[in-house]
Design a protein that fits this description.
By secondary structure, this protein is α+β, with helices and mostly antiparallel strands. The protein has 14 helices and 11 strands. The protein has helices at residues 9-20, 34-41, 77-90, 114-126, 128-136, 170-188, 207-212, 226-231, 237-255, 264-275, 282-285, 321-330, 339-365, 368-375, and strands spanning 53-61, 64-71, 95-105, 108-110, 143-152, 155-163, 191-194, 214-224, 259-260, 288-295, 299-309. Strands 3, 4, 5, 6, 7, 8, 9, 10 and 11 form a 9-stranded mixed beta sheet that branches. A hairpin with a 2-residue loop joins β1 and β2. α10 (264-275) packs across α13 (339-365).
Length: 380
């Protein structure tokens, strides 16, 4: 059976139901515009999967109040982030900072010798302006920021970095890089073996992106007074700090983890699902470091660093109806010269900070299992 032969979502679903003798009533019940979703977001579409969305907050950052939409099937996650939001807000709010690094694409070329490898590198370095002009002709919303490369044997890995404004931009950078690769091949005789040679690095955790960053890199911080620690989080600065050190630092080192944090991927996945991001980029979002320090005797300073957030507020799944509503809830829907995507990244950082604070406190006080027992199994 070739489902591509059937032109409508309903027809494909009906054919499957008949052949497999199953009912797909709930998969077939949705509010998305199938004419858009089936042509731009999902091939062979038969319906939609529904994921519950909960709200955490309010979360105060830079003096502004946010309510965080989290799409998840994991009981206790929204409640945990909500508790972290309360702790941050009652501590005066979080401070956030961000920097646009750019979307990347990293093709791999093959040459015949080290001498040719050297010449290929020299060509790329001396023809940046020509490559920049060529790539930027492929889209009015794209700017080539820089090119770097690394050679090994007969192979050269080249990393193109682009500003894609409010789009996450992978389609744009792929098309632009393809044009650059064609130009480089014709001019140098080098062969491009793969348009993505894992030097981007796309949808995988890597030290490359940990150190050099990708997309948008973000920091968030808060100092939790002892009164908030005891009343909201049921812990103390000293106890929470020891739990952070044992888990995020030593535990991560002992296991060879690339992320020195408690649960970045958990919160990022829920926000990505709610706002129409490419969920596979959670692999990169899991990178990052949480730091904690006892200050003023009994207060706790906590910060997080996300070096690799690939997010957008236009394109991809962000234009679908429910995802667009979630972005509107955050005040970042649509394009705004790159400002909306950067603000979304900062909101994600604030939510991640809330999640870290709550989980580390729960681990310290020994309530993690109890919370999942109550919230994840219908106990409350």
């Amino acid at each position: 059976m070739n489902l591509r032969e059937y032109k409508t979502v309903t027809k494909r679903r009906n054919v499957l139901e008949k052949e497999l003798n199953v009912r797909l009533k709930n998969i077939g019940s949705f509010t998305l515009d199938e004419s858009v979703a089936s042509t731009r977001n999902c091939e062979n579409m038969i319906g939609a999967t529904q994921v519950p969305i909960g709200i955490a907050g309010p979360l105060v950052m830079k003096g502004k109040k946010y309510y965080i939409p989290l799409a998840t099937t994991e009981g206790a996650l929204v409640a945990s982030v909500n508790r972290g939001c309360k702790a941050i807000t009652e501590s005066g709010g979080a401070m956030v900072d961000s920097h646009r690094v750019g979307a990347t694409r990293g093709p791999v070329f093959k040459v015949r010798s080290l001498e040719e490898n050297k010449k290929l590198n020299e060509f790329i370095e001396t023809h940046f302006n020509e490559i920049k002009e060529l790539t930027e002709k492929t889209s009015h919303h794209l700017t080539l920021k820089k090119i770097s490369s690394q050679g090994v044997g007969k192979y050269r890995y080249v990393r193109f970095v682009y500003d894609t404004q409010d789009a996450m931009g992978l389609n744009m950078v792929t098309i632009a890089t393809d044009a650059a690769v064609t130009y480089i091949e014709k001019a140098t005789g080098a062969e491009c073996l793969a348009l993505s040679g894992n030097y981007c690095v796309d949808k995988k955790p890597s030290w490359q992106n940990f150190i050099n960053s990708r997309g948008i890199k973000v920091w968030a911080e808060v100092t939790l007074p002892s009164s908030v620690l005891t009343r909201v989080l049921k812990t103390t600065a000293k106890k929470a700090h020891e739990t952070w050190f044992a888990k995020c630092m030593l535990g991560s080192a002992m296991s060879g983890s690339m992320g020195f944090n408690a649960q970045y991927a958990n919160v990022i996945a829920a926000l990505f699902l709610a706002t129409g991001q490419d969920i596979a980029h959670v692999g990169e979002g899991s990178l990052g470091i949480t730091t904690a320090e006892v200050v003023n005797g009994n207060d706790l300073y906590v910060s997080i660093h996300l070096p690799d957030l690939m997010v957008g507020t236009v394109g991809g799944g962000t234009g679908l109806a429910t995802q667009l509503e979630a972005l509107s809830l955050l005040g970042v829907a649509g394009g705004n010269n790159g400002k909306n995507a950067q603000r979304l990244a900062e909101i994600i950082a604030g939510a991640v900070l809330a999640g870290e604070i709550s989980l580390l406190s729960s681990l310290e006080e020994g309530s993690l299992a109890k919370a999942h027992q109550q919230l994840g199994r219908g106990g409350i």
